[in-house]
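user: Please supply your own:

assistant:
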Amino acid sequence: MSIWTRISEALQALAKGESLATVFDRLRSPPERSVAFTIAVIALSAKMAKADGLVTRDEVTAFRDVFQIPPEEEKNAARIFNLARQDVAGYEEYAARIGRMFADAPDTLCDLMEGLLHIAMADGVYHPKEDAFLGRVAEIFGIEERRFRALRARFVPDERPDPWSVLGVSADMPLSDIRAAWRKQVLDCHPDRLKARGVPEEAVRLAERRLRDINNAWEEISSMRAPS
């Protein structure tokens, strides 16, 4: 059964009057977590679209970049987006429920944040209201401000990524320890590990940019440490 079929089943519950928040609460364990992850990205993106007051064709395209949506399932994805945008529940309630759902998997919450940042930058503009929205969501998720800034720097062109924060290391660490941190992050980008965290197969593209940034950070640090 595809993830979009399972999402369709969740939509049937929504059609019967259940709120998205109630549906989230039922999707707590694998393989349903991948359904929850997908709905969470779409729903929070819909709330974010309300924050800057505009939904562009670029943002719709960004959904297709993050999630490989078959043409026959695009209506289901659009329906979730519209339901979330119309739901009276505030985004903070959504974020709190999602945060509790993935409380035992903080890396999954960072995966989700990367998806939101990707979509926020789809039109080439990072709106201040989007930044305030995502900063608050990160706070609710329990993502440290330093880590959120590092995530944001990888997506917002005006903010050059700090290679040390990308790898989660400090400049005074031995190169061998930095190399170990880099290797661990590379392994964490493997599709099998992403799926184990609840990231659906359809969204493994989220790791492609992260892997590139991790490798760039390592190359920059190792070149700085190279003997002159």
User: Anything to note?
Assistant: The radius of gyration is 18 Å.
